[in-house]
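Fig. S4 source data, part A: sequence.
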Amino acid sequence: MRAVRISAFCIFLVIFIVVVRGYASLLTHYDPEDSSSSRLRWAFIPSLLWFPYFWVFWRLRDVTDVGRVKKALAQAVSWGLFGGLFFSAGAVKSWIDKGWLTAVTASIFALLQLVLLGSAIKIYYSTERKQGDLRIVGTRFGVIVLIVVLFAHIIPSSSFLDMEKMETFAAEALRTINAAQTEYGKMHRDKGFASSLRELGPPPSAALIDENLANGRRYTYSITLNPASPDGNGHTSQYTLTARPHQYGNRGKRSFFSDESGVIHYTAADRAATVNDRVLP
């Protein structure tokens, strides 16, 4: 029983800390002009994921009530199985993508879920079988299935999430170009930074970015590279990058700006972002 309570509490604590830090970050960078309010509303849904684990931990503090214990163990089995599958899949994907920090975190979380699942199953099957046990377990699994079905219906149809995805791709595109420019500058110390995206593109160019990005496109965004005038030796030491949605408010609202510093700025207004706008966290 102790293993169930400890693993449930550890999972609850990790989720709770992540949720609190996430909300703190959202509130710190809250901007009424962009989709911050939508982010806060959407963040509320996963923020509730700590509750089932805390419920297991709290209900098992008293083991004299057998019915209460069985309900808590059924909850632990259902959420342990769901969490184990979910985070195991996430860990595998992160290891494949070489996202080491995410991979390690997801692996630890999956291990905690499996400990919860295994210990709960062991204790549950050591208890006396009674009529209604199947209904208790089935109800808990039914709740999870309902949640998964609702998410599967809501998430793909959310225009906000689609917009967020496009904006994330645009910001990542600027990071990719910044990294490519750094590498290009090392390869061409006499010339400095590339003066166009095409110079960073596939062969016969430097092969540091893909074809679409070399053409100034990233999904619903247009990417522009503006180099500074070279010095007397023909060396370019500065440049600016901008990313703007093709159609403001349709699969993209925020515009982004970056330069050789690597810092990305953004604005939710219908204009190009500048160095004076807010810094993207």
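Fig. S4 source data, part B ends here. Residues 160-279 form a domain with the Fructose-1,6-Bisphosphatase; Chain A, domain 1 fold (CATH 3.30.540).
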